[in-house]
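job 3f2a | input accepted
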Amino acid sequence: MPIEGPGAFAGAVTVSVKGDLLAPQRTRSGSTTATITRVASGWTEVGDGVFVRRYPFYDQNIVAVLGADEALVVDTRSTYAQAREILGDLRTLGAPRVAIVVNTHGHHDHVFGNRLFRPAPIWGHERCVTMIERDGERQREGASVEVPSLAVELAEVELDPPDRTFADRAAIEIGGRAVELAHLGRGHTDNDIVLRVPDADVLCVGDLLENGATPYFGDGYPLDWPATAEAVLGLTGARTVVVPGHGEHAGRAFVVTQVAAFRAVAELARRIEAGELDLEAAVAAAPYPARAAREPLERALAQLRGELGP
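job 3f2a | predicted structure (310 res):
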């Protein structure tokens, strides 16, 4: 099922490539209706030649798509030490050469390891570059405060944004396999993309979806997010494996529940703006735990006030 929609892949870019302490862990849950074929030394094969490894730090998923004797890697984690861990773990898959990297968005836990994967080209949305260049130092400072044990490692990171960018859609190839990239709209950030491996029916959605924890709304667009999540849903079938940025991989039903939650947040914010509810009542009615529900609602209200731009 190719990525479809108005103007799907019109003008898409096509490229053929040949050739210690953990952060506070979050309890997550999820399941998939798809068949998971095998587990290889910490990697789970969720589709033919598509492997997911779930790292305890931030409960983060890293994906490797294998083609011929090379690999595409989705996201690069927070530090060089964490990036080296990915590279070492790839050896258990036969040490494929990393020929392409894809950044799902510009947050530090997805891009700060980029430099260690060079000279591989790194793909991302054009605004992913903007986010890294504009906010990278702020993100470094914030992560150092959140996880002081990583401050030294974070200090050595050289910001290295994607050098292959697109606005809406791109078609790339890894070892003879087609891979589709698409920006479906604003949600977790203004530069989220999804990656689809058609021949394996695997959809990597970055932090547009999180499994088992409240999504981070701090850079989000809560009024746009429902439609973007619905577009994600439109790319799933009965057996599609959906890999979120954090938490257990899942299936279509998981996406349905996420769409409903995003719709609820947007609707509650509109009811606050209309004077039908106060913030505390909306927090109590939100689909997230009370301690986590305030940020999404406040961010949605800021968007309704026009504070997040057009």
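job 3f2a | The chain has a mean pLDDT of 89.
job 3f2a | closed
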